[in-house]
Amino acid sequence: MIGAAAGKLAGKSSYIRVRFWPFQGRAPCTYRDEKVTSKILELGCGPNKKFADSTALDIHAYPGVDVVHNLNETPWPVAADAFDTVHAWHVIEHLPNLFGFFSEVHRVATHGALVHLETPHYSSRNSWNDPTHVHHLSAGFMQPMLAGGYLAAQTGVFEIVSRKVTFGSVFHSWLGRLMVALFGIDKWEKHYAFRMPASSVRLVVRVVK
Question: What is the pTM of this model?
Fold first, then answer.
């Protein structure tokens, strides 16, 4: 199974569906396909695989899923150093074994691979109204896995490429957006998050080996 997952991508190009966002925090409106030479892993994609030539891993055998496996069970049936892009959208909040998750991401990704993550911000109602959510995360949840962090020895080392919080409609969230723009994410989160709640946390992190 490991060989099949790795061999599936050998010598292939992938098509990334690039999203265009009219406002931060709203749903994507259009897509266009760009051909890139990339090996992409989608984790927990469900029935909505987003990239045409990626390897998709999910606990359910939905159409388009290539590897059926529970992400909480490690190691995953995927070869090491096989992917240079990893996507996990609204996945990690469902996983009790986050240490195992990030350790496996680090294992299956190449040095310098980019990992795209999105999860509900802890101030969001959406973080709390789904009973399958077992984590309610801040924008700083990756800090312990950075170089020198106390979890880096367990998970492997990552570095932050970009970090942002998204909000709901502009009309209802303009003050929160302004606070982030003026004072930064960390100060907004410490002093204003529950008064001016966000929607999601979006991170891009780089794998360091």
Answer: 0.79
